[in-house]
Amino acid sequence: MAHTVDARGLSCPTPVIMTKKAVEEIAGEDIIVIVDNAASRENVRQFAESVGMDVAVEENDGEFTLRLKPVGACDAANAMIAEAKSAAKPAKTGPVVVYVASHSIGFDESLGGRLMNGFITNIKNMDDMPGSVIFVNTAVQMSTTNTETVAALKELEEKGVEILSCGACLEYFNLVEKLSVGRITDAHTVMQRLFAAGNVIRL
Amino acid sequence: MPRPDGLVVGFETSDDAGVFRMQGGGMLVQTVDFITPVVDDAHTFGRISALNSLSDVYAMGGSPMTAMSVLLYACECPPEMIKGMLQGAVDELTAAGCALVGGHTVNDTEVKLGFSITGTLPDETYYRNCTLRDGDVLVYTQPLGIGILTTAIKGDMASPEEITRVTDAMLLSNERASKLLRRFDVSAVTDITGFGLAGHGWEMAKGSGVSIGFELDAIPVIDGAAKQASMGIVPAGAHENRQFLTYDTACPELPGMKHIIYFDPQTSGGLLIGVREADAAALVAALKAEGYADAAVIGSVSPKTDTLVTFK
């Protein structure tokens, strides 16, 4: 699941400024940037490369979708998550961890919210249960104000799945009091779960 | 359209201004240019806009005489902002000995200000952009990077030092440089504006039937512009210029997109001067003495090949 910056219809330097803001706010995450002119495509690509991200560009009908992946020494969080992923892959023995960093899936936010509800409520139907489901950034809505996902997560918790919500994120969105399922966690615990995971599924 | 008898320089070679010989003698130099804001301060923007418009007359070797304003703004604009812009412009026009005689104003969402300038030539000598000679060298009076740094200002990404440096560059009038030209064996002149160094160099080469080589290491660049370019803070016009010049311009891809600086649109840029090699050092020294601290020989002219402009 990647954060999306829709910079269509905007001219330089606005798409770069929007991308910069997104990178700063959600360090360590994939970011998708959509622009509709070649100049902005080049500028966003250059910006992403300058902060150590990998860039893949797709063109479709005059629009450009840039997928930005944090791979370099962008900041500590990027490095840690990248390390966690690479450390987790060869092991393949630990539990599955579902890592959710947004309230929405894909380009369209309104559709994305519904998709997220559908995906979360379907975890319980899988053959093997994950060890943990971790919510960070705007994804903390899932364990607080979103009644549909809260109900689904309670079922998972009863099956022994650990439901973790990022404490700093709950505080940031003023949702600490609203936590309805699972427990508050911190960066250390999140990293422990990711490092120990056999497979990290990112929504 | 039949060519009028008095028309000396028309639009055929994309020159900086038209030149028209009046009945009874005297040569008129005429141009119009208007721009969107490049700095936050209204008075400073007015000054830059006036200098940018005057520059086309200076690039022809002329002396500005009268100005007509072209002003577009939304009626909600604070009146003190409009007043500040026009005061800044009038300050520069007055310093240039150019009289503001009128103008026209139109309602528009984004502010635009510029001037149609009419100048005269002191004698029969004027400087076209299409008369470079094989063997000339090219002198430029300013550092590049104005478009990149004003884009950084628009994005709130420019440091105070960068804002000062780019503003100083735009406020450097081409008047004194223009007045020096007659003392040297100068073949052709243009001012570097929207098409960047590469684009205006291309126009000079194409019009003159020659090729131009620019020395990357010799071209002065404003401190901070390369860093901004490396972060993708580049105006769309720079990419468009590069795209337009794909086929007959050769410029290496440099790390951090530094090559885009040579395509960067300049507002109130400097003069690119073709001069006999033997006169180049003296011209650069004279320019430096007149306050053009970054004036330098940046390239040379050679017989025409398929590649009109080469950066190496």
Distance between the termini of chain B: 42 Å
Q: How do the strands of the widest beta sheet of chain B line up side by side?
A: 8-11-7-12-9-13-10
Biggest protein-protein interface?
A: A-B, 19 and 20 residues
User: What's the assembly state of these chains?
Assistant: heterodimer
Q: Regions of chain A with pLDDT < 50 over 5+ consecutive residues? A: 87-91
Counting DSSP H or I runs of 4 or more residues, the number of helices of chain B is 9
Distance between the first and last residues' Cα of chain A:
4 Å
Q: How is the biggest beta sheet of chain A arranged?
A: 5 strands, parallel
Strand order of the largest sheet of chain A: 8-7-6-5-9
Can you write the helix and strand succession of chain A as a string? EHEHEEHEHEHEHEHE
Mean pLDDT of chain A: 85
* Helix segment tally of chain A: 7
Q: Stretches of chain B where pLDDT falls below 50 for ≥5 residues? A: none
- Number of E strands of chain A: 9
Question: Which percent range describes the beta-strand content of chain A?
Answer: 15-25%
Would you give an account of this structure?
The complex is a heterodimer of chains A (203) and B (312). Chain A has 203 residues and is an alpha/beta fold. In chain A, 41% of the residues lie in helices and 23% in strands. Chain A starts with a strand and ends with a strand. In chain B, helix 1 runs parallel beside helix 2 and helix 3 packs across helix 4. Chain B has 312 residues and is α+β, with helices and mostly antiparallel strands. Chains A and B meet through helix 1 and helix 2 of A and helix 3 and helix 8 of B.
